[in-house]
Amino acid sequence: MEVVCDDRLRIWHAMFGTPRAKKGLSIMEQSNLFNAARGGKWPPIRPTISLAGLNLNWFNYLADGMYPDFRIFMKPLSNHRTNEENMYSQHQSAARKAVERVFGVLFSCFQILYRPARLWHKKDLNMVVKACCVIHNMICNSRKESYTGTTKVAYTDEKLDQMRSVDFEKVKRPASTYKQALLWREYLDPIEDTEAHRLLQTALSSHIWNMKGDSLE
After folding, report:
1. pTM to 2 decimals?
2. Before 47, cis peptide (omega within 30)?
3. What is a single Pfam family found in this protein's UniProt entry (predicted)?
4. Which pLDDT score is estimated for 11?
């Protein structure tokens, strides 16, 4: 099961029933979400923000070490050479715990997801999983005023307002096949850019260290 959620545990994307998808790369090859990103159909908007001198114009997904070093993934560092890199990996792992918590919540609230399935058809199983995700999101929406997520703990109200004021650029889809092919290359190359992934890790490490590093001294 592939899930994308926010720090409030609200599920934004779920895919169930993909055979043999146990590794990050095999999941990506069969994921309708990442195939849409590769084809320029997702996301419909792109942010424009600068972080530690790095201009960001793409959304990133928190992922563990089994995913490839692509631009769209925000992964922990495998080797911590400095305190700055160690702090980045700690913050990344803490934020990534949300998706682990959402699986725990789903399994505890919906025992049908935890126990062996008794349905015969995969279509019915998929419908059950989606129904549980919808009900889970309804619960998240009903409690959103009382649960603020991990972001609220880490930032002040003023900082959150500043983060919400990020400018977004709407993505325009070309009509002709030739221009669509150019758009494909425009999106595919940045998504799989490993150098951009490394620059993102460096920028985030510097940003987090500048905000939190002084507290270690």
Report:
1. 0.72
2. no
3. Plant_tran
4. 92
Question: Mean per-residue pLDDT for 126-154?
Answer: 79
| Domain ranges, residue 70 | 2-216
Radius of gyration of the chain (CA): 19
pLDDT at residue number 174: 47
Which residue pairs, CB below 8 angstroms and at least 24 apart, start in 42-50? 43/171, 44/170, 44/171, 45/168, 45/169, 45/170, 45/171, 46/168, 46/169, 46/171, 47/166, 47/167, 47/168, 47/169, 48/166, 48/167, 48/168, 48/169, 49/166, 49/167
Of the listed ranges 44-53, 107-116, 204-213, the least confidently predicted one is 44-53
The more confident residue out of 57 and 108 is 108
How far is it, in rounded angstroms, from Cα 133 to Cα 137?
Answer: 6
Cβ proximity of 24 and 68 under 8 Å: yes
HSE-CB at 30 with a 13 A cutoff on CA atoms is: 15
Q: Where are the alpha helices (DSSP H) in 31-176?
A: 32-38, 83-109, 111-114, 122-142, 149-154, 157-164
Residue 19: both structure tokens together: 């055979």
Residue range 80-91: mean pLDDT, rounded: 88
* Secondary structure element (H or E) that encloses residue 196, with its range: helix 194-212
pLDDT in tens, 7-27: 888 998 888 876 655 555 666
Q: Give phi and psi for 100, each to the nearest 5.
A: -70, -40
Q: Which residue is associated with the tokens 């129904």?
A: 131
Structural domain count, the chain: 1
User: Which residue reads 């495998």 in tokens?
Assistant: 78
